[in-house]
């Protein structure tokens, strides 16, 4: 276990900043292109699996021992017109209100203030720390239920999905999972979600993951979304972005009464909700069985 925030390097010499109290998972990739996985348990405890996160590298990424690179740009992307992704907002101008138009009716913004639904805890802090660290973490899995009365959740495989939760409550849980630490946790924002798709498409060999759907007849446990051929929804060690449940984000819709935005595909969404899909929700108290959430960490 790392006792303080520590920069380590993968086999290609890419930096990975590990938060204090975490260690590398036993099944982590050996380089960032395969998915570096960390977990929050003491080193040497082989019987316990902690909450797991996957490193999303940002900037120039070494992809082999020859030091060839591929660049992953932190930003907000639109995937409707091009499954590769079209950057609509760079992290460098995150303070501007730039709208992504995906359906000619609603637009989507990552705001820093001024709306009723939960916005990112500190978007500027996320951007700065991600750029300085050359990456950030997203939950390896969607949030799983521990006990709805204990105000917590876990990020592990084969858990009951934490659904039927409002966007605001999901944000509260995500940002309070770790407190009094020299790193931050939050509900996933649109920069983190979109850049993760760009990363997956760059390194998984699945160049159209943004448009995929993993449909099941009913809700499955975390890490088990799949298609009809039983191909599981895992790319670069990240699970269930195309299936299982749709995921609350801190993005905001322009539609009146539909401000809260969820992302991705879900078990009931074979009609066109795919990995990169954006969609609003109409009620401040909306909590549905087909919507869960995913958290992020940044150091």
Topology:
Elements: E1 6-9, E2 15-18, E3 23-24, E4 37-39, E5 52-57, E6 59-62, E7 69-72, E8 75-78, E9 86-90, E10 100-101, E11 107-109, H1 123-133, E12 135-139, E13 144-147, E14 152-154, H2 167-176, E15 184-187, H3 190-203, E16 234-235, E17 238-239, E18 246-253, E19 260-263, E20 278-281, E21 291-293, E22 295-298
Parallel strand pairs: 18-21
Antiparallel strand pairs: 1-2, 3-4, 4-5, 5-12, 6-7, 8-9, 10-11, 11-18, 12-22, 13-14, 15-22, 16-17, 18-19, 19-20
Task: Give a short summary of the structure.
The chain is of the alpha+beta class and 299 residues long. The protein has a domain at 56-70 and 119-298: paralog of FGE (formylglycine-generating enzyme). It is built from three helices and 22 strands.
Describe the 3D structure.
With 299 residues, the chain is of the alpha+beta class. It has a domain at 56-70 and 119-298: paralog of FGE (formylglycine-generating enzyme) (Alpha-Beta Complex), CATH 3.90.1580. The protein contains three helices and 22 strands. The strands form seven sheets. A six-stranded antiparallel beta sheet has the order 3-4-5-12-22-15. The longest helix has 14 residues, at 190-203. It is globular. 51% of the residues are buried. The mean pLDDT is 93.
Count helical runs.
3
Rg (C-alpha, Å): 18 Å
In N-to-C order, the SSE pattern is EEEEEEEEEEEHEEEHEHEEEEEEE
Q: Which structural category fits the helices and strands? A: alpha+beta
The CATH topology of the domain at 56-70 and 119-298 comes to: paralog of FGE (formylglycine-generating enzyme)
Would you tell me the overall average pLDDT?
93
Shape estimate: globular
Order of strands across the widest beta sheet? 3-4-5-12-22-15
Uncertain regions spanning at least 5 consecutive residues: none
What kind of sheet is the major sheet?
A: 6 strands, antiparallel
Total strand segments: 22
User: Which CATH class of the domain at 56-70 and 119-298 is shown?
Assistant: Alpha Beta
Strand residue content: 25-35%
